[in-house]
Amino acid sequence: MPKAKTDLDLWMNEALAAPGNGELSLSVPLHVLFGEAVDVARFHKTYWKPEVKDGKVVRRGLEMAASKKKNANTLTAKTGEEILSLQRAAVEAGTRYLLAVDPKKASPFERGQVVLDEITATLEWLFDDGVEDENDARLAKLGQAHADDPATADALALALDDYAALAAPHREAMDGLGGFDAAMLDEAKELAAALRAHATQSAGLGEKARDALLLRNKVIGLLNARISTVRAAARFVFRDRPDIARESTSAYERRRRAEAKRRAKKADAPVPL
What we know:
Distance between the termini: 81 Å
Number of helices: 11
Mean pLDDT: 86
Largest sheet: 2 strands, antiparallel
Helix content: 55-70%
Strand content: under 5%
Shape: globular
Structural class: mainly alpha
Radius of gyration: 22 Å
Oligomer: single chain
């Protein structure tokens, strides 16, 4: 009996054929994207068909924005289901990537990438409490500082040191959160030292891990593109119903914008004499 295909199997060819080098650029943390994917898929299902009463359309539907020209990101009746499938595929691809980097055989660079991803993801989840505070500001500042880091041992070592230092005061809260092992904070420092000691050696992921990371990022790219398609259609179709259009937007982004406005307003406030 043939083995049933997983969601990742179903999307692998399209993902690998997608243009780009697999660099991942997201406006929200990965765990937020996965959660919002479910919300957008639900929105698509709820608002696909227009609401009709007495032969008149009283509320438009997303299908009214569907194009007759078909391409990968065209809005269709199946887009919501595709988003859910891609979300599952992205999770599976992420697991494959982690398994491709064997901690017992991995180079300091390979293991360092995994440890850095784990620390970053756990900090993002821990700090994502709906309130923008100094922790969020520090994490955002680190993200900006390391956004354009080259793929070198020295750059990875510095990132490991920086994120481990930010995480240190939150060690107890992080331990066990989403399966995170706080021992990784100690390992991050050890890996940073090892990377600096061998900075002249060729740094980079092994071929298997590199291919797994490329696949993960490209699947996430497909997922993000379809989410964007639904949101763009919602803005257009429900332009007269901002209350409905808002349901498709990112709550994370809304909170971040609101907090940025609050901070700007506070900064512009006159200083009492």
